[in-house]
């Protein structure tokens, strides 16, 4: 299998790193693939630009940095502006549709699929689970990882006592991703 | 596991299926009957005389005003467990809820208490309650173990505070679970600035 390179971008406090970490954990620990994670965040705890790079591959990964991602997961307009020029032609953009506006800068053949993840998280009772909605959306829209694996990865990553709501958030995103991407 | 998940069926360790649901007005007599069939030593640890119709009427009024959220476990049409979340709607402890839980002896050590307690904890957190307390007598070891499984810790001991049926004074233990901390941990995880995140 070819390597899949993913960039997750947003703002500090949205759980960008945890989102990327769960995708990587899911692929490596629960699906037996190889995965790497590189994270970058600003000096402030909240509101500064934040991104993570995840590489998933059947083979060993020699170089963990993502220069031209196959998939972008975007949770802020700044992240869109910064990373959209790097997306591979034919790549996939998964974006929070109430925080990101898609313009005409998508590379040739690229597809963009949006989700109102913040609203979904708020409807579930906590805005905090926005990133988990995005993880579910990623899994449902890409089919890169299975539901069973991503469910296990979320369960083992979130604090005890928060599993129920996080799994609801995951399912909400997953179902929406499947529906929107026609998977 | 919010209100929208009720009623739901639970299976006890011995395979019996029970229904967990919110108390309805029509359950009033069944609830009083449940309490009347409890042995006196079990009723001794309760805070009210729960065997009277007057108590049931007062209790239903509190349920109607949402001061009490009451969950019942039904074995067919028979009440075999009652668990309630008491809360203050006003004042400096309105973020605190108290759980009171009683199960029929015939259904103990089968996972019923844990199922009811965990449901009440989830309902409490959904209602925005930040701290949950539960009181028990020192020798209610099973109850204590159940709540420890749900993250409760001993917070206070009132020595020789209660007198049991034989006249022996016993310690009252107050256990608490600061459920606001559960989500504080999640909040810390999504900060996106810790150099240890993602390890």
Our count of domains of chain B comes out at 1
Low-confidence runs of at least 5 consecutive residues of chain A: none
Alpha-beta classification of chain B: alpha+beta
* CATH class annotation of chain A: Alpha Beta
Strand/helix succession of chain A: EHEEEHEEHHHH
- Strand order within the widest beta sheet of chain A: 2-3-1-4-5-6
CATH homologous superfamily annotation of chain B: Gcn5-related N-acetyltransferase (GNAT)
What is the rounded distance between the termini of chain B? Answer: 30 Å
Strand order of the largest sheet of chain B: 1-2-3-4-5-6-8-7
Number of helices of chain B: 6
The CATH class name of chain B reads Alpha Beta
Structure description:
The complex is a heterodimer of chains A (183) and B (199). In chain A, strands 2-3-1-4-5-6 form a six-stranded mixed sheet, with helices on both faces. Chain A has helices spanning 16-30, 77-83, 117-124, 130-142, 147-155, 163-181, and strands at 4-11, 34-41, 49-57, 71-74, 92-96, 111-115. In chain A, helix 1 (16-30) packs across helix 5. The longest helix of chain A has 19 residues, at 163-181. Chain A has 183 residues and is α/β, with parallel strands linked by helices. Chain A contains six helices and six strands, in the order βαβββαββαααα. By secondary structure, chain B is of the alpha+beta class. Chain B has helices spanning 28-37, 40-43, 53-64, 112-126, 141-149, 180-189; strands at 8-11, 17-22, 68-75, 78-87, 96-103, 131-137, 153-163, 169-177. Chain B has an eight-stranded mixed sheet with strand order 1-2-3-4-5-6-8-7, sandwiched between helices. Mean pLDDT of chain B is 89; it is low at 195-199. Chains A and B meet through helix 1 and strand 2 of A and helix 4 and helix 6 of B.
Helices, strands, pairings?
The complex is a heterodimer of chains A (183) and B (199).
Chain A: E1 4-11, H1 16-30, E2 34-41, E3 49-57, E4 71-74, H2 77-83, E5 92-96, E6 111-115, H3 117-124, H4 130-142, H5 147-155, H6 163-181
Parallel strand pairs in A: 1-4, 4-5, 5-6
Antiparallel strand pairs in A: 1-3, 2-3
Chain B: E1 8-11, E2 17-22, H1 28-37, H2 40-43, H3 53-64, E3 68-75, E4 78-87, E5 96-103, H4 112-126, E6 131-137, H5 141-149, E7 153-163, E8 169-177, H6 180-189
Parallel strand pairs in B: 5-6
Antiparallel strand pairs in B: 1-2, 2-3, 3-4, 4-5, 6-8, 7-8
């Amino acid at each position: 299998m070819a390597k899949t390179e993913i960039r997750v971008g947003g703002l500090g406090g949205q759980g960008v790193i945890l989102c990327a970490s769960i995708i990587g954990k899911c692929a490596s620990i629960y699906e037996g693939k190889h995965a790497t994670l590189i994270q970058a965040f600003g000096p402030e705890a909240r509101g500064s630009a934040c991104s993570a790079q995840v590489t998933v591959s059947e083979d060993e990964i020699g170089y963990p940095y993502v220069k031209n991602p196959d998939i972008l997961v975007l949770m802020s307009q700044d992240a869109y502006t910064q990373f959209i020029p790097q997306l591979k032609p034919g790549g996939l953009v998964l974006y929070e549709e109430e925080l990101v506006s898609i313009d005409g800068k998508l590379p040739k053949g690229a597809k963009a699929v949006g989700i109102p993840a913040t609203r979904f998280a708020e409807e579930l009772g906590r805005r905090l689970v926005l990133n988990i909605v995005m993880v579910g959306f990623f899994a449902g829209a890409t089919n890169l990882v299975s539901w069973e694996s991503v469910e296990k990865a979320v369960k083992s990553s979130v604090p005890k006592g928060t599993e129920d709501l996080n799994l609801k958030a995951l399912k909400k995103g997953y179902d929406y991703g499947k529906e929107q991407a026609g998977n | 596991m919010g209100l929208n998940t009720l009623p739901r069926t639970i299976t006890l360790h011995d395979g019996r299926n029970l229904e967990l649901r919110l108390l309805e007005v029509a359950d009033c007599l069944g609830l009083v009957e449940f309490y009347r069939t409890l042995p006196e030593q079990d009723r001794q640890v309760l805070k009210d005389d729960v065997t009277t119709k007057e108590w049931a009427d007062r209790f239903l009024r509190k349920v109607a005003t949402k001061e009490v959220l009451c969950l019942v476990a039904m074995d067919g049409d028979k009440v075999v467990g009652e668990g309630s979340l008491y809360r203050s709607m006003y004042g400096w402890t309105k973020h605190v809820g108290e759980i009171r839980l009683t199960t029929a002896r015939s259904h103990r050590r089968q996972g019923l208490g844990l199922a009811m307690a965990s449901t009440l904890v989830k309902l409490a957190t959904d209602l925005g309650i930040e701290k949950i307390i539960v009181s028990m007598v020192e020798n209610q070891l099973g109850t204590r173990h159940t709540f420890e499984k749900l993250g409760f810790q001993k917070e206070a001991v009132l020595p020789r505070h209660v007198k049991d049926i034989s006249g022996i004074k016993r310690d009252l233990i107050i256990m608490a679970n600061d459920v606001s901390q559960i989500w504080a941990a999640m909040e810390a995880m999504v900060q996106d600035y810790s150099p240890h995140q993602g390890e």
